[in-house]
Structures are given as C-alpha cells and as structure tokens.
Amino acid sequence: MSTFMESYDFSGKTLAAFCTSSSSGFGRSDSALREAADSASWLDGIRFSGGASSEEILEWANGLGISGT
Predict the structure, then answer these.
(1) pLDDT in tens, 4-37
(2) What domain count does the chain have?
(3) Is 68 within the bounds of a domain?
(4) pTM above 0.90, yes or no
C-alpha cells in the first residue's frame, strides 16, 4: 500500500481514509497515508465498528460529496 501511495500522482484527487475494527482505531495509519499521498486533498476519515454494514459505509461515502471518478 505504501509503495502505491508514494508512487501514484494524487494531484487533483480527494481522498478519505476509513477502516473497520472491533477494537483499535486508526493509530498512525491516517497520518501515514496523508504523508504518502501529500499531493491529494484529504477529507476526515472514519473508523467503523467491526460489525458495520455495507449500507453504513456507503451512506458515509455518499455523504462525502465527491464523485467516484
């Protein structure tokens, strides 16, 4: 993941990190991703519980106000 994030040109792209976990949070992952793709515009990420449904995740993603292209 790090190699891809560091080598891809994210200029003009908007990214938001998310994860699912039943116990831990983002830790340093969010800041590491932002550093690896510093040319991107970053939105606040979110941690979903391990039991989050795909509907919950899609609702969050659709609410970001960005297109899928």
Answers:
(1) 998 999 999 999 999 888 787 777 888 899 999 9
(2) 1
(3) no
(4) no
